[in-house]
Amino acid sequence: MKLATRVTKIKPSPTLAVTMRARALQAQGKDIIGFGAGEPDFDTPENIKQAAIKAIQEGFTKYTPVGGIDELKDAIITKLKRDNGLTYKRSQIVASCGAKHTLYNIAQALFEKGDEVIIPSPYWVSYPDIVLLAGAKPVIVNTTASTGFKLTPEKLEKAIRKKTRAVVINSPSNPTGATYSLKELEGLAEVILSKGILAISDDIYERILYDGLVFHNMANVSEAMKDRCIVVNGVSKAYAMTGWRIGYAAGPENIISAVTEMQSQSTSNATSISQKASVEALAGDQKTVSVMAAEFEKRRNYIVGQLNEIKGMSCMKPPGAFYVFPRVSRLYGTGYGGRKIAHSVDLSEFLLEEAGVAVVPGSAFGNDHHIRLSYATSMKNIEEGVRRIKAVVKKLA
Ligand code: PMP
Ligand code: GLU
After folding, report:
1. What average pLDDT does the segment 309-323 reach?
2. Residue 290 burial by CB count (10 A; 0-12/13-18/19+): exposed, middle or buried?
3. pTM of the full predicted structure?
4. pLDDT, average across residues 291-299
5. Domains in the chain, number
6. What does the alpha-carbon distance between residue 209 and residue 179 come to, in Å, rounded to a whole number?
7. For position 59, which CATH number holds?
8. Given 3-state DSSP classes, what are the helix, strand and coil percentages for the chain, each rounded to the nearest 5?
9. Which domain holds residue 12?
10. pLDDT above 90 for 240
11. Do residue 183 and residue 236 come from a single domain?
12. Are the beta carbons of 363 and 140 closer than 8 angstroms?
C-alpha cells in the first residue's frame, strides 16, 4: 500500500527502538542491562499519584479545555515564575501530550516547505524528524567537544540563511548534557534577534543539573528575546512521569493559539487525570526533584570515572541531564571473533550481543564517534553494566 511521502522521510525513534529491543530480549529471559532509555527509573512521587487517584475518584474523567485546564495553566505559570523568573499569561500557555507532542505541534504550526530550522548536533533524535514531518528542512550544525558541544554565535550566524525560521536550543542537552550559561545564551540571542529568527528552548532536563549549576533559559536574556522564544518543558524527566504524557509550551500568544487549534483537530486535551497529577507535580512539594537529581549526580560521577578507565573510550563529565556520551571511535577498526567494529552501530550491536548491555549509537544523535548511555537506572545495574563493558572491550583487537 502506498504511503504518504512524509512518512517515508522519517525513521522510528532510535532511543525508543533500543529500549523496546532490550525489553523484548529481557522478556525472552536474556540478562540485559539497559542503558538505552532516557527515562528515570524512579517511581512517580506519591503526592503526584495521590492527586491522580483523587481526580479519578472525583470523576474528573471527562474532556477538558483543549489546551489544558486553567488549574494546570496556573501551575505552569507558577513554575515558570518560581524556577525561571519568567512571567506569562494563561493565553501564552498550552499543555499537550508530552513535550515531544508539544514540539511536534509547534513545528506543524510554524514551519512548512522551504523553511529551514537549525539544529545543533549532537541533537536529540526526534528534532530532525519533527522538522521533516512539517515539510521543512533540518539544518544540522555540528558542535565539538572543544566548545563543550555547544553552539557558538559564530556557527549560528554562519548557518542562518533567508529561509531560516528558528534554532532549537536544548540545555541541558540530550545526549551530551551540555548546559549553556546566561552569557553564552546572550551571545546566541544577539544573533537570533539581529536575524529575526525564533528560538525553541527545550528545557526538559532543566531540573537535572549538577555541581550547583544554575539553569538559564534563552527567554531570560531580555524581553525582546522572550518575545521570540518558545519555551518547551514537561513533567516526564523532573518528576519521573514519562508515562503520564504531559508537556507544555509558553510563548507568543499567536503561536500558542495555533498549537491549541491544531490540538482541537487532532488529540483534543491531554489526559484529564494526568493534568491533575501535573498540577501537583509543578505546584506541589518539590522535595523529590532534588532527591532524584542528587542520586543522578552520584551515578554520573561513578559512570564517568569507570568509562574513562576503559582503553579506547573517553568521557566528558556532563553538567546536566542523565546521559553520558563517551567518545569511542578509537575502537573503530578493531574486531573480535570475525566481527568488525567500524562505527557506533557496530559497537552498540557488539555490546548488546557480547555483553548484554543496551546503549544507543551516537549516529542516532548526529555524531558517529560516540555512543550514549543513560544512567537513569539503578547503581547496581550501572556497576554490572560497566563491568561487562570493560570485560568485552578488552577482547577487541
Ligand atoms: N526533549 C528531549 C531533549 C528529550 O530527551 C525528551 C525525552 N523523550 C523529550 C523532549 C520529550 O519528552 P516527553 O515527550 O516525555 O515529555
Ligand atoms: N528522550 C528519551 C531518550 O532520548 C526518551 C525516548 C524518546 O522519546 O525518544 O531516550
Report:
1. 97
2. exposed
3. 0.96
4. 97
5. 2
6. 9
7. 3.40.640.10
8. 45, 15, 40
9. 5-43+288-393
10. yes
11. yes
12. no
Q: How far is the CA of 13 from the centre of ligand 2 (A)?
A: 8
Confidence of residue 63 (pLDDT cuts 50, 70, 90): very high
> Considering only CA atoms, which residue is closest to atom 5 of ligand 1?
174
Nearest CA to ligand 2 atom 5: 38
Rounded average pLDDT over 52-62: 98
Same domain? For 321 and 259 the reply is no
Q: Under DSSP, is residue 372 helix (H, G, I), strand (E, B) or coil?
A: strand
pLDDT in tens, 136-151: 999 999 999 999 999 9
**Distance (Å, rounded) from C-alpha 77 to C-alpha 323?**
29
Strands 339-340 and 357-358: unpaired
For residue 209, is pLDDT > 90? yes
Alpha-carbon distance 199 to 202, whole Å?
Answer: 9
Please indicate, yes or no, whether residues 39 and 54 belong to a single structural domain of this protein: no
Task: Please state, in angstroms and rounded to a whole number, the distance separating the CA atoms of residues 305 and 17.
Answer: 28
Name residues contacting ligand 1 (CB within 6 A).
38, 98-100, 124, 170, 174, 202, 204, 234, 236, 242, 247
Tell me how far apart the alpha carbons of residues 359 and 19 are, in angstroms, rounded to a whole number: 9
The pLDDT score that the predictor gives to residue 21 is 85
